Each structure stands twice: as structure tokens, then as C-alpha cells.
DNA sequence: CTCTGGCTATAACGCTCGTCATAGTCTAGC
DNA sequence: GCTAGACTATGACGAGCGTTATAGCCAGAG
């Protein structure tokens, strides 16, 4: 009993993140998600008894921490190396999916919350963005940028990359991400060099 | 007969753009859209016989050219003024909607195209982005930036603002847009001043 | 007045949605 | 072998979807 076939559960979460990154949250149905993750529909409600909301929240957190892990590792070699890894990660997702997939965190961020409450998935998206920004800002500060400048540059990096991913999908071309990468490299160089 | 109550038609398109900017394309239903635009459901298929696809395409074009018009006007006073107007526009939309609305062009860009064809709405989104970038790049070049730098900065501006809008919605805070604005001002100043 | 044609109202089609309930299968522990 | 509990299979519920069809309204042309 205590086994709890975790691979199945994790496969569902990962599949949800992928599917949300392609179609958006509202357009992702649990039925198709189960099929995509090769899991029975009944299992999704077994593992995620709170339904779609819980599934979406865990998918966003899953993607957020996965990116955070990569970022944390690559930022050891400095902010510029972290930027390169961050971009390479998204580039791979966009290219491998033939411009069909993007960032699940962004996808959740751009859907209107119902009524007057903020759904946990949206809060998870905010936390993901904050985590990425914090890691970037810390690395920038550690390499000579002053506090305000670090926060600003970190926000610009995350916003610019997220926006560029969407632009690449619309244009079916990697040009926006390429252009943005070059600009962000210069901004980071200026921030760690020039200080403020 | 020749009257063709155009105000009704335009109200539907504008309502579609607003609704898409809040909920995304797939999650926007024609029934709710008609209600939101105070138009009868039958009228939507009368004005847009190709259905939702045509409606989405026109909505994206409507938003794209509206922004272009503002951009074109404000860029007369230079790239920095254009950036300020661009940001003020989105800031108004995000704040007035209490973080519920964003950019309809972005919303369309992040939804997976069906099968193997590219829907016209997605193509319209790409054109909207290209239009904004082109106007920004032209203004930058006219004020001393060299060709490559202008294209890069223009892409960064559009990507950064689009990404920041989404981040603001997730965090329910205008901080990302504020931070990005300051960074983009500096980038533009560097591009028109330093040249390359 | 009649008639025409743009617009609207209403109902229906087949489909998918999120969610729940129920019954069944399989394995781990005794 | 047997029971308990984790997992799966299946089907149903009401609701909403995009779209179409049909009939009705109502201003302007003749």
C-alpha cells in the first residue's frame, strides 16, 4: 500500500506543465491531459482530489522549481552564464516543440482569475517569477551590481525572455529570442561592470 | 439597407479584444462575448460568418493597429517618449482592470495552433508585434541608433513590456512594469547616445 | 401599400467539459 | 488464502461550447 506509484503521479504533473505551456490553462482538459500522460482519468482525481486547480498549481510549481534548479546551478559561473542557460532552456523548448510550447508560468499568468479570489495556480506563478528574479538579482549583486540595479535587471531579464518566447511562437521564428539575448547580455555586462 | 450598423460590429470586435486579453482565446466563448458586447448571438455570425477564427483575427488586428496608432503619434517626440506612451497604455489597461486584463496579442500568441496549419489570428499577432517593433526601430534609427542596435532594442522593448505585463498580473503588483520601464529607458538612452 | 434585405430571436445539433459515484482489479501484509 | 487499501475502469450528471437553421422583425425603396 505504501508504495504509491509516484512515477505515475509525477508524469501527470509534468504532462500538465507541458500541456499548459502549449494550450493555456483553461484550454487544457483533464481528459486529454490524462491521455497525454498515459494515465487513466480516474487516477487524476485520485492523486489530485481537489481537481484541476490543484493539478494546475502543482504543474506551475513543478516548472518553476525545475527552472530554478537549473538557474541556481548555472549562476555559479556568473550572471552571464546564468542568462545563457536560461535562454538555452527556453530555446530548446520552443524549438523542440516547433513553436508550439512555451512557458507554463506565463500561460497561467495571462488568464483571468474567476470572480474575486486569486486561484492558487496564479499565486504559484507569481512565486515562480519571484524565485527566478531573486536568483538572478543575487548573482548580479554578488558580481558587483548594486542592489536596485540588480533587481531591475533581473526583472528585465525575466520579462524580456518571457515576452520573447511568446513573440517567437507568434512569428514562428527564433529571431526575437536571439535579439533579446544580445541586448540582455549587454545590460548584464553594464550592470556588473558599471555598477549603477 | 446600406446603413449596416457598424457601431455594433466594431463594439463586438473591441469587446473580443478585451475579452481575449483577459481570458485568452480558447477560453473566450462567443456567447459570453456577445453578452459582454451587448450584441445578440446571432449577430456575431451575421457580421463574422467565418466564426470565431475571423472574430479573433479581427480582434487582434484591431488591438495591434490601435497600439500602432498611439505609438506612431508619440514616437514623434522621440523613442523615449514613445516608450513612455507604450508603457502608460498598458499600465492603464492593467490597473483599470485590477490586473485582470493584459495584451490580447500576447494572449493569442501563447495558444497552440491546431494540427499543422497556422490560424490567421496567430499570423495577425505576429504582424502586430512586427509593426510595433518596426515603429520603435525606425524612431531609434532616426535618433542616432545604428541599424542592428535599433532592431535589438525594439525587440527588447516589446518583449520586456509584454513579459512585464504578465508578471504584473501574476503578482498583482505594478512593480515589474516599473522596474522594466527604468531599465528600458536606460537601454534606449544608451542606444541613441552611444550609437552601438 | 408591398416588398426587400439587413438584422435579431430562438432552438437545436453533436460534442466536450469538470466532477463525481460506483464497481472492479491488483498487490502487500498477515 | 484472505483481507485491506491503493489504484483503475466505466459511466453518468448538468453545463457550456461552436455552429447552423429557421423564422420573425423592422426600416427604407418602389
The CATH top-level class label of chain A: Mainly Alpha
By secondary-structure content and strand pairing, the structural class of chain A works out as mainly alpha
Task: Name the pair of protein chains with the most residues at their interface, and give those residue counts.
Answer: A-B, 50 and 50 residues
What is the CA-based Rg of chain A, rounded? 18 Å
Number of domains of chain A: 1
Largest sheet of chain A: none
Task: List the uncertain runs of chain A.
Answer: none
CATH architectural label of chain A:
Orthogonal Bundle
Q: What can be said about this structure in brief?
A:
Chain A is mostly helical.
Q: Which properties best describe this structure?
A:
75% helix, homodimer, elongated, 196 residues, Tetracycline Repressor, domain 2, DNA-binding, mainly alpha
Amino acid at each position: 500500500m505504501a508504495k504509491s506509484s509516484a512515477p505515475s503521479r509525477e508524469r501527470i504533473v509534468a504532462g500538465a506543465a507541458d500541456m499548459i505551456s502549449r494550450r493555456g490553462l483553461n484550454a487544457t482538459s483533464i481528459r486529454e491531459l490524462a491521455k497525454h500522460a498515459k494515465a487513466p482519468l480516474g487516477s487524476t482525481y485520485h492523486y489530485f482530489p481537489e481537481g484541476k486547480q490543484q493539478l494546475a498549481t502543482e504543474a506551475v510549481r513543478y516548472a518553476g522549481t525545475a527552472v530554478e534548479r537549473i538557474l541556481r546551478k548555472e549562476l555559479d559561473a556568473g550572471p552571464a552564464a546564468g542568462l545563457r542557460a536560461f535562454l538555452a532552456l527556453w530555446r530548446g523548448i520552443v524549438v523542440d516543440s516547433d513553436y508550439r510550447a512555451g512557458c507554463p508560468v506565463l500561460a497561467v499568468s495571462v488568464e483571468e482569475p474567476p470572480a474575486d479570489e486569486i486561484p492558487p495556480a496564479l499565486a504559484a506563478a507569481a512565486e515562480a517569477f519571484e524565485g527566478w528574479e531573486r536568483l538572478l538579482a543575487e548573482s548580479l549583486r554578488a558580481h558587483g551590481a548594486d542592489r536596485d540595479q540588480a533587481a531591475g535587471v533581473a526583472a528585465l531579464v525575466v520579462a524580456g525572455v518571457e515576452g520573447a518566447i511568446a513573440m517567437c511562437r507568434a512569428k514562428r521564428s527564433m529571431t526575437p529570442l536571439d535579439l533579446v539575448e544580445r541586448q540582455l547580455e549587454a545590460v548584464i555586462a553594464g550592470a556588473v561592470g558599471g555598477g549603477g
